[in-house]
Structure formats: structure tokens, C-alpha cells
Design brief:
The structure holds two protein chains of two kinds. Chain A is an all-beta fold. In chain A, 0% of the residues lie in helices and 54% in strands. By secondary structure, chain B is mainly beta. Chain B is globular. The model of chain B has no long low-confidence stretch (mean pLDDT 95). The interface between A and B is medium-sized, with 24 and 24 residues.
Chain lengths: 112, 113
């Protein structure tokens, strides 16, 4: 089955800096790669996703890149703000949108 | 629209007991999936239901089961509880079609003593 590795496990940045989280996946058939943000006491929330026929996608301060050859994808957050502090999960799937394999998560702390 | 609602939010059980968790999806969402979240293993897929049928199942023992009703509400059951079943159980619903977004509830936190 699919295996998703995520790095780093924790990331501390100053407000205004950029943050990058990287994930690798094992199943070359995976075709959908979402990123979820989980705040304390809440369920994960989708922040951006990318499909295998696209190399990059942007949404305001957030961007995701996908390298199918190397089987890795990354989340980029620019101009970080304290409210970006949360746990971020990458995921991949080849067998349907609901059957996601998640990475172990990255705790992002943005200091004012 | 109301979000995904999970009940109960917190519960404590002892080893050997069983537990039933409930999930009400967003109105109109027919797909409901369940995930187990633990500090060590992260988020792991349990199963997905669509139109009262289990569509996919993760790698969990048969003690974990679920069902979906005609109104799309779903329940999951864990029998013969073990200490390792302590976790946050998350339910997510999704619109059908080519939309990948899962809408998660806030979860049911199960503690097994």
C-alpha cells in the first residue's frame, strides 16, 4: 500500500518568514495530493490540493508543488502569520478521495 | 449549512467493553469515512461508506465495524476494546463527484482504561 513520509515534524519560524513542508510517497499510481491543517481541538481542514496532472498550484499565500518523477510534493506558505500555527498533514491516494494515506504531520509554530 | 457532527465528543471505557460512535454528515453528502488519529500512528483510514454500502476498508481488525443509514448518518463500533484503541476518531463527509475535499468533524475522543 501507499506510504507517505513527511518532514520536518516540527517547524518554528518568525512572522513574515516562509515555511516549507515536504512529503514523499511510495505508490506511483497516486493521483491526488491534499494538504490539511488541524488546529487544536478541531478536525483537519483542507487548505489546498493538487492532482497528478498539475505541477504547481497557488492560492494566495499557499502553494503546492508536485514532482511525480521523484514522488514528492511540498507545501509552501509565504508571509507566515501567527494564525498559521497548527499541525499540517500531507496525504496521497490512488484509490479514491476518501481513502487517504496521511503523513505523520508537521507542527508549525509562527512566532510574532 | 451545519458541519459534520460527531457524538459523543468524549468517552471513557474499560478494556473488553464495546463502543458506538455516531456521525451526522453535512446535508447532501452521501460519502462518510472514518479515521483513527493517535500520536504515534497519525491519521489512519478505517472505512468509507456510500449509500449504505461499505466502499473501502483500511487495515484494521474485524473488531472495528461500521454502518451507514439511509439518511447518510453513520456509526462505527469497536468491540472488545483494547488499551491501544484509545484515540481520536474522526468522521469526514464528502460530496459525490470529482470534488476531493473531506469535511471533518471535531472527533470523538475515546479513552480505554
Amino acid at each position: 500500500g501507499e506510504n507517505v513520509e513527511q518532514h520536518p515534524s516540527t517547524l518554528s519560524v518568525q512572522e513574515g518568514d516562509s515555511a516549507v513542508i515536504k512529503c514523499t510517497y511510495s505508490d506511483s499510481a497516486s493521483n491526488y495530493f491534499p494538504w490539511y491543517k488541524q488546529e487544536l481541538g478541531k478536525g483537519p481542514q483542507l487548505i489546498i490540493d493538487i492532482r497528478s496532472n498539475v505541477g504547481e498550484k497557488k492560492d494566495q499565500r499557499i502553494a503546492v508543488t508536485l514532482n511525480k518523477t521523484a514522488k514528492h510534493f511540498s507545501l509552501h506558505i509565504t508571509e507566515t502569520q501567527p494564525e498559521d500555527s497548527a499541525v499540517y498533514f500531507c496525504a496521497a491516494t490512488s484509490s479514491g478521495y476518501s481513502t487517504l494515506t496521511f503523513g505523520k504531520g508537521t507542527m508549525l509554530l509562527v512566532s510574532p | 449549512k451545519a458541519g459534520v457532527t460527531q457524538t459523543p465528543r468524549y468517552l471513557i471505557k474499560t478494556r473488553g467493553q464495546q463502543v458506538t460512535l455516531s456521525c451526522s454528515p453535512i446535508s447532501g453528502h452521501r460519502s462518510v469515512s472514518w479515521y483513527q488519529q493517535t500520536p504515534g500512528q497519525g491519521l489512519q483510514f478505517l472505512f468509507e461508506y456510500f449509500s449504505e454500502t461499505q466502499r473501502n476498508k483500511g487495515n484494521f481488525p474485524g473488531r472495528f465495524s461500521g454502518r451507514q443509514f439511509s439518511n447518510s448518518r453513520s456509526e462505527m463500533n469497536v468491540s472488545t476494546l483494547e488499551l491501544g484503541d484509545s484515540a481520536l476518531y474522526l468522521c469526514a463527509s464528502r460530496e459525490t463527484g470529482n470534488t476531493g475535499e473531506l469535511f471533518f468533524g471535531e472527533g470523538s475522543r475515546l479513552t480505554v482504561l
